[in-house]
Amino acid sequence: MSVCPAPRQGPAPLPSARGPVSAALLAALRQPPYDLPAGLGAELAAVADPLTDEDLQLTLFLCYELHYRGWRGVDEGWEWQPTLLALRARAERPVEAALRRLAGPLPAVLPGGVPRALAELVAADDGPSLAAALQRRASLAQFREFVAHRSVYHLREADPHSWALPRLDGPAKAALVEIQMDEYGNGRLDRMHAELFRLTMARLGLDPAYGAHVDRAPAVTLATNNIISLFGLHRRLRGALLGHLAAFEMTSSLPNRRYGNGLRRLGLDEVATRFYDEHVQADAVHEQIAAHDLCGGLVAAEPALAADVLFGAAAALAVDRLFAAHLLDSWAAGTSSLRPAAAPVPAVAHAAVVAAPPLSAPAGLPAVA
Fold it and tell me: From residue 161, how far is each of 80, 106, 329, 332, 355 by CA, in Å?
């Protein structure tokens, strides 16, 4: 007998459109699969900033989510519909080009020098310290916003990087399995990092259902997720995917300590901080595995992928800087870093729009504006 998944586990609720392309795609997804108009999304090639364009990033996210838990009420046949894949490719091209520009020129290194080059990239990262702000001065409402942003990733934590598993062998595959096993709680549901994050969300009075906050997440937040899917769903970018994971792990331990301390400063209990506390120790170990065994193992077997590994790491760091700057700039201006609860969208024929509810809080917790 089949069992319908609980709403908290997915599929995700469809978000509102953010422009003509995402509106047309949403209208299509509400119907059985059919061929999309030829050239749909061609205008995305000319957007000024692909990484912060709302229509482009939502279009990509809509396409990618079909490969994860899917969208509520959407026919699963859309996942491999050829014209939808063509639209996805048109959206991916400007994003990948923007990532390569943002990453900038990278040093040419021999395979044996990749772990050190990764460490140097991380050490040279000069982005704004979002973690320090959350530890020392963020309000409870601001911390709740941060958690809402991060829920887009953490409620499916580790899944995007797992696309690499069937594309690896030998030491690199063993290293990835070791990292991912920790992320998935070593087979224990109560220790899965996504489950621990749900507890943090619940303690903060946030809806912990899968995809509940996608509609409020701005383009830069979607971009931090979309680049992992971009790397993961293209075998040619497997080196970039592992480089992204390495940067993720190598910049995780100290920020998570700060996040936990920030919640303690705000009076939250150990249930709320457990997700972050768990990452302090785990990611200190993962940092070494990711740099030496995972990425080092990959380039030892496939030396030509060394440049891709560094590109993936540099792209991860660069997009995270954009994300941090968006939150800190919004808070400095006294505004929310989230999208409005009912953002207006352009009218498109046959495109139904679903408005997202505001982030509600139980008694005693401030609402997120």
Answer: 20, 23, 30, 33, 31
